[in-house]
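Good morning,

Attaching, inline, the backbone tokens for the sequence recovery test we're adding to the shared suite. The designed sequence is right after.
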């Protein structure tokens, strides 16, 4: 099974990174966190240090099934500035492989014109970065190979949208029951 890579940069929004990691692993999906920084321990926007599973130099795009970008500041702008990640994202986009971004992180996709003609959402105020997208302000938006989320409060629904893509709606319902989320 290929891997869903969750990329971590200094200042990432902890809820938006770790909620999907937790939920996707509960669904049985292969998920790894990847540091794009110079160290394996990456500190989030609220001072929570997270030890990434891998360093960017240790991964290969052909091993990835999906790229997931958490928001937070300066996390999203740090992701936006990483040249290797940019190359991987562009490879994924040209191959039609899934990309997911939440909160401020859809700016990474928008800055590469990957949201052109797609419905997308993001943290209020960042819609100007969604070049060519139809901004919806919904909690989660799924349009083709791209999944976007609005912000920290959308992290759980964002994760469930990814689970539904790979495992179906029945698995989402099963997870919600097990996690004591009303269905």
């Amino acid at each position: 099974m290929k891997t869903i890579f969750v990329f971590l940069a200094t200042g990432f929004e902890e809820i938006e990174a770790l909620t999907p990691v937790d939920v996707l692993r509960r669904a049985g999906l292969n998920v790894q966190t990847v540091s794009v920084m110079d160290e394996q321990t990456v500190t989030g926007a609220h001072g929570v240090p997270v030890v990434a599973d891998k360093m960017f130099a240790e991964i290969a795009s052909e091993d990835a099934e999906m790229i997931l970008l958490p928001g937070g500041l300066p996390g999203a702008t740090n992701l936006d500035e990483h040249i290797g990640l940019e190359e991987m994202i562009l490879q994924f986009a040209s191959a039609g492989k899934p990309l997911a971004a939440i909160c401020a992180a859809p700016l990474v996709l928008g800055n590469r014109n990957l949201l052109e003609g797609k419905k997308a959402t993001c943290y209020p105020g960042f819609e100007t970065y969604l070049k060519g997208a139809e901004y919806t302000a919904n909690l989660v938006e799924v349009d083709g190979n791209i999944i976007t989320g609005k912000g920290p409060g959308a992290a759980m629904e964002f994760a469930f949208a990814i689970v539904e893509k790979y495992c179906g709606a029945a698995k989402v319902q099963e997870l919600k029951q097990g996690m004591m989320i009303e269905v």
